Amino acid sequence: xxxxxxxxxxxxxxxxxxxxxxxxxxxxxxxxxxxxxxxxxxxxxxxxxxxxxxxxxxxxxxxxxxxxxxxxxxxxxxxxxxxxxxxxxxxxxxxxxxxxxxxxxxxxxxxxxxxxxxxxxxxxxxxxxxxxxxxxxxxxxxxxxxxxxxxxxxxxxxxxxxxxxxxxxxxxxxxxxxxxxxxxxxxxxxxxxxxxxxxxxxxxxxxxxxxxxxxxxxxxxxxxxxxxxxx
Length: 231
Prior knowledge:
- The chain is an alpha/beta fold.
- The protein contains six helices and eleven strands.
- The protein has helices spanning 8-11, 33-42, 62-66, 82-90, 100-112, 175-181; strands spanning 20-23, 47-50, 70-75, 94-97, 116-119, 133-136, 139-145, 149-160, 165-166, 182-193, 212-215.
- Strands 1, 2, 3, 4, 8, 9, 10 and 11 form an eight-stranded mixed β-sheet that branches. Strands 5-7-6 form a three-stranded antiparallel β-sheet.
- It starts with 7 loop residues before the first helix and ends in a 16-residue tail after the last strand.
């Protein structure tokens, strides 16, 4: 049951060109930094990445964009990445923009084995074009399908060798729902402990959803937008 691997390079073994990946995080908070760098170094290309956003130009998924390793982004918010904007407008990058709540629920549904669900979000907009519409309680809803991935890559605060994970604060974000929806889930953690050292009542992702886990290193803790008050 020991699911530990030595490092990010070993964790991403089996990820090949043109696969679909889910990557946890929100902005630069709770992103799997080590695994992203390993993907950059491995020069794996043609990837479809499901992530709330695409990092910034020189960090997070922005590093994969710089190397033209991402073919398609399925995201909610992409406003902090100039290279993303350039590739999207030039037609180099396929983009599927999804309302944030719908993105979260599509990932959760994928992990729960629910193939599709109805939501009012996006009805009457480009998001709803071509999708089935049904009315519930007098309100139109569109049909959204679940999202899954070949690999889900998440970042947690603490984890044990069985794959149980605890996230810290807002770094929890998309990580739990994505951890459920990958055929293979990789978790990198700030602190790796032995079984029994985590409070069972505090675990956010049970180890049954995780296949590989390792302790990451050199996390940067960047601030995406630093705003301070004038003295």
